[in-house]
Design goal:
Chain A: InterPro entries: CoA_trans_fam_I, NagB/RpiA_transferase-like. Chain A: It comes from Roseibium aquae. The complex is a heterodimer of chains A (288) and B (256). Chain A is an alpha/beta fold and 288 residues long. Chain A folds into 2 domains: 3-102 and 157-281, Glutaconate Coenzyme A-transferase (3-Layer(aba) Sandwich); 104-154, no CATH class. Helix content of chain A is 30%, strand content 23%. Chain A contains 10 helices and 13 strands. Chain A has helices spanning 7-14, 32-40, 55-62, 83-91, 104-115, 131-134, 183-189, 242-251, 255-267, 273-278; strands at residues 3-4, 20-23, 46-50, 66-71, 98-101, 120-123, 139-142, 149-154, 160-169, 174-176, 192-201, 212-214, 221-224. In chain A, strands 1, 2, 3, 4, 5, 9, 10, 11, 12 and 13 form a 10-stranded mixed beta sheet that branches. In chain A, helix 4 (83-91) links the parallel strand 4 and strand 5 (98-101). In chain A, helix 3 (55-62) crosses helix 4 (83-91). The longest helix of chain A has 13 residues, at 255-267. The model of chain A has no long low-confidence stretch (mean pLDDT 96). Chain B has a single domain (6-254), classed as Glutaconate Coenzyme A-transferase, CATH 3.40.1080.10. Chain B has a 10-stranded mixed beta sheet with strand order 4-3-2-1-5-10-11-12-13-14, with helices on both faces. In chain B, 29% of the residues lie in helices and 22% in strands. Chain B is built from 8 helices and 14 strands. In chain B, helix 1 packs across helix 2 and helix 2 (30-40) crosses helix 8. The chains are: A alpha/beta (288), B alpha/beta (256).
């Protein structure tokens, strides 16, 4: 049953050292504010899952929160590589991390299997490639009807899913639209969930009967954080801050620059900063 | 070579290969530009799909990422990512997929995972993303890559996505029925697989490019088709459409 909290309390009550956490979002609606709160609260030994780990995973890894990363594409989208992730993998800084690497199809299927209560996902994939030789969690099964050999990966069942959505109503039902990625599957596959939202409304009003809505009884904690996806975007609210993604490449390049940026922009501030950061992006980029 | 850059030639050669009735799985950068140039010139009805779930997009500026709002705003419909990979890609609805990589070998196998050893990499690259299944599920694959000895290698450090495997019938032997890479479009030439060995063979040199340019930028002994053509230079219309697209994109991304 959805409970309304401050972001601080939502994280403090739901994410613990050693947890497996999926902060999902596919370019759109990436839960930046929530990840920053996890960093501020100093969580350690997390296993973090994400199809497309980008800036927040670079930040979580660089700040020493992560023990293991499960992923399928780790990059700064349209810009380049993740330099803090590279430093951890190539140089062991701030400490070595374990990688479990998949393809997008594998993880998308694995989230869906998690939401569906299945132990594994089955799909046609990984033929003729090297990933199965370095990831023991990629196996195969034979179709009992046709004899076709298919790839199998374990379902994803995180302790916690963390997503950013557009709105919640007073009951705690959650609405999202646009590019919805795997967020619905991630929430339904997880034992607990934290949802940050742009706004809380009395009623969702006119909407498509097929709108993506997560009922309040599937949600754990809700925290209102306007701008909480920045520099990602929120459809209809604000546009993507491409300049911030480009700037990250330079910030993350050097350990000292990274640490001082995190101190100034994450450790010393609170979630309210996100509304200020998105103010100038609200005029045209997000408005429809 | 004057009046256009090798990159522009590569993008325009890729655009020309697309047909009006193609359903195309698009990647960022050169593929995105090529697909949209095709849409804005000879293939107005082409269906462009980005893996973020957007089907039938018509962006006026090129996205920086595969999930920019512009794609969703202009799409016919937007589906979830599991649906994209299950129904649309694995379901066999895509006629052409675009791929590129850090490394390619002569059979069109690609590496976007690591340079060096997997467990102790020299460079940790982003990983495969959608590529392993795009490579086997799309009807055919077009590859765009700039030629260099660092990228065009004798042996890949890691096979991220399957091309023609070890050549000949190896792809079919691995249980893959789709055609795989049928075109390799570079900044210097157009390459097509040899019908028997499936090794990529130069079939057309871009204007002003000589055979030694190919040899100098490839880490194996490249093969040339019996008759090697010359790629027609970009037309004024093609160049104008591509440059307008880049100018609009630059203005949009820097003005944000």
């Amino acid at each position: 049953m959805a409970q309304f909290h401050t972001l601080h309390d939502a994280v403090a009550q739901n994410i613990f050292d050693g947890d497996t956490v999926a902060f999902e979002g596919f370019t759109h609606l990436i839960p930046h504010a929530a990840a920053h709160e996890v960093i501020r609260q100093g969580r350690r030994d997390l296993t973090v899952i994400r199809m497309t780990p980008d800036l927040i995973y670079d930040q979580l890894i660089g700040m020493g929160c992560v023990r293991k990363l499960v992923f399928s594409f780790a990059g700064n989208p349209g810009v380049g590589l993740l330099r803090r992730l590279r430093d951890a993998v190539e140089e062991g800084w701030p400490h070595p991390i374990e990688l479990e690497e998949h393809s997008h199809a594998a993880l998308a299927n694995a989230y869906e299997a998690g939401a569906a209560g299945l132990p594994c996902a089955i799909f046609r994939g990984y033929r003729g490639v090297d990933l199965p030789s370095v990831n023991p969690n990629i196996k195969s099964v034979t179709c009992p009807f046709t004899g076709e050999e298919l790839a199998a990966v374990p379902a994803i069942r995180p302790n916690v899913a963390v997503i950013h959505a557009l709105r919640a109503d007073r009951k705690g039902n959650v609405f999202l639209e646009g590019i919805t990625g795997v967020q619905k599957e991630a929430v339904l596959a997880s034992k607990r969930s934290i949802v940050t939202v742009e706004e809380i409304v009395d009623d969702f009003g006119a909407r498509s009967p097929n709108a993506t809505i997560l009922p309040h009884w599937t949600i754990g904690a809700i925290a209102q954080v306007p701008g909480g996806a920045h520099p990602s975007y929120a459809q209809g609210y604000y546009g993507r801050d491409n300049g911030a993604y480009i700037a990250w490449d330079r910030i993350a390049a050097e350990r000292e620059v990274f640490l001082s940026w995190m101190e100034e922009n994450v450790m010393k501030v609170g979630p309210e900063i996100f509304e200020i950061r998105t103010a100038r992006l609200r005029q045209d980029g997000g408005a429809k | 070579m004057s009046g256009f850059t090798p990159s522009e030639m590569m993008t325009i050669a890729a655009a020309r290969a697309l047909k009006n009735d193609d359903v195309c799985f698009v990647g960022i950068d050169a593929p995105s530009a090529a697909c949209n140039v095709a849409r804005l010139t000879h293939a107005p009805d082409i269906t462009l799909i980005y893996e973020s779930g957007t089907i039938g997009t018509a962006p006026s500026v090129l996205p920086l990422s595969i999930g920019d709002g512009e794609l969703c705003d202009t799409a016919l419909t937007t589906v979830s990512v599991p649906e994209m990979f299950r129904y649309w890609l694995q379901g066999g609805r895509i006629t052409v997929g675009f791929l590129g990589g850090a490394q390619i070998d002569r059979f069109g196998n690609l590496n976007t995972t690591v340079v060096g050893d997997y467990t102790r990499p020299k460079v940790r690259l982003p990983g495969g993303g959608g590529a392993p299944e795009i490579a086997i599920s799309c009807g055919q694959i077009f590859i765009t890559m700039k030629q260099s000895r660092r990228g065009f290698v004798e042996k890949l450090d890691f096979i991220t996505s399957l091309g023609h495997g070890t050549g000949g019938g190896d792809r079919q032997a691995k249980g893959v029925a789709t055609k795989g890479p049928t075109l390799l479009l570079t900044d210097l030439a157009i390459w097509e697989p040899d019908p028997g060995t499936r090794e990529f063979t130069v079939t057309s040199l871009h204007p002003g490019v000589r055979r030694e340019h190919i040899v100098e930028t490839v880490g194996w002994e490249p093969r040339f088709a019996e008759t090697v053509g010359e790629t027609p230079a970009p037309t004024a219309e093609e160049l104008e459409v591509l440059r307008d697209l880049h100018a609009r994109t630059k203005a949009a991304h820097s003005g944000a």
